[in-house]
Amino acid sequence: MEAIFVYTTFPDWESARKVVRELLERKLVVCANMREHEAMYWWEGKIEEGREIGVILKTEVSKWKDLREALKELHPYTVPIIARIDLDKLNREYSEWMAKVLFG
Amino acid sequence: MEAIFVYTTFPDWESARKVVRELLERKLVVCANMREHEAMYWWEGKIEEGREIGVILKTEVSKWKDLREALKELHPYTVPIIARIDLDKLNREYSEWMAKVLFG
Amino acid sequence: MEAIFVYTTFPDWESARKVVRELLERKLVVCANMREHEAMYWWEGKIEEGREIGVILKTEVSKWKDLREALKELHPYTVPIIARIDLDKLNREYSEWMAKVLFG
Fold first, then answer.
1. Interface ipTM
2. For residues A83 and C90, is the Cβ–Cβ distance under 8 A?
3. What's the pLDDT band for B104 if we cut at 50, 70, 90?
4. Which of A4, A35, A79 is nearest residue C93 as measured by Cβ atoms?
5. Which CATH number characterizes residue C59's domain?
6. One GO molecular function term (chains A, B, C) (predicted)?
């Protein structure tokens, strides 16, 4: 079990919850943590600001490609961020629970 | 000095603050950043939702095993997440301050 | 393109927004995600608490040294945290957009 976090952002709570539920139903992730933030970024030559929902998705590395493709398919943004961070260590209890949910 | 972030989640502010204070007093971490999020996850065959407190703990890698065991001992969840992310770089000023707090 | 996240914290929204805008104008980062948290930490022999703004900065690894130095120059804290986490994977669309913003 190699566990990963995948970070992505949504324009609002409605789209965040809808996409996360779909990822859970497809067993591509075991859990998501979602909270609002303020974003500042370059867009078409200007610095823009806005509220977003930032989401940490928790899963196993073998789900990565399917998860990335599902996010591209479901995501409301043209250019979403889909950033993978591999965990260096994870406690055995959570790791075993994750395996049971994802692989039955 | 190899610095690490350890991510965990609590059911409420009271338990988060209580456990974090204990970890600080035992000099297992130098700092914690805590904020609320909405969690969606599989639990006993159903997709559940709820508010949680997500916590980033900052420490040095030699504290990892003691920190993990302390979290298991103190944590209100049966299956908490205790996820370690090793920092790739950290500015020298913060690294030196961290060493002074943890190792005197 | 090797993408990185850099995590730092500010004492208030005003300083966070001001410094982030400057980093964007200098093309040291493409995007920042900012949200409030509660911090607990050791400071001069005591455990302190307070509200802060935690910021994830998104950029390319070749910007790291300039970004770190700019943060030291602009940061209101004497000892800020400037923590770099290298992404293990990033979707091609975001990576290409990031390169276009940073390198024209």
1. 0.97
2. yes
3. confident
4. A79
5. 3.30.70.120
6. copper ion binding
